[in-house]
């Protein structure tokens, strides 16, 4: 069995990133859009850790930890906003949220 190289991780990351971008661009449910953004963050983290191990440096792993913390904060704030919008508009459809309109 051949060893797992960084190229394998790059292909996995590319697949996750593509699925995330398609989810953000095609879905209307705000919760699914947030999940797709989390997939994009995870694809970036896989790249950071793969290149960090390739170059024998810990800086990529450290930066990945910061990305995970930022993604957790984004998820918490995003879900709070979604709950507030659902209480006001009774929908989580991105097309029907028009609070900024007159």
Plain-language structure description:
By secondary structure, the protein is mainly alpha-helical. It has helices at residues 6-26, 30-54, 59-89. It has a domain at 29-91: Helix Hairpins (Orthogonal Bundle), CATH 1.10.287. The protein has three helices and no strands. α1 (6-26) packs antiparallel against α2 (30-54) and α2 (30-54) runs antiparallel to α3 (59-89). It is elongated, with a radius of gyration of 17 Å.
Please specify the SSE layout and strand pairing.
Layout: H1 6-26, H2 30-54, H3 59-89
Helix pairs in contact: 1-2, 2-3
Termini separation (Å)? 62 Å
Helix content: over 70%
| Amount of beta strand | under 5%
The CATH topology label of one domain is: Helix Hairpins
Q: Tell me the series of helices and strands, N- to C-terminal.
A: HHH
Top-tier CATH class of one domain: Mainly Alpha
Outline the low-pLDDT stretches: none
What is the CA-based Rg, rounded? 17 Å
User: How many β-strands, per DSSP?
Assistant: 0
Please state the structural category.
Answer: mainly alpha
CATH architecture classification name of one domain: Orthogonal Bundle
- What gross morphology would you assign? elongated
What can be said about the biggest beta sheet?
A: none
Number of helices: 3
Average pLDDT for all residues: 90
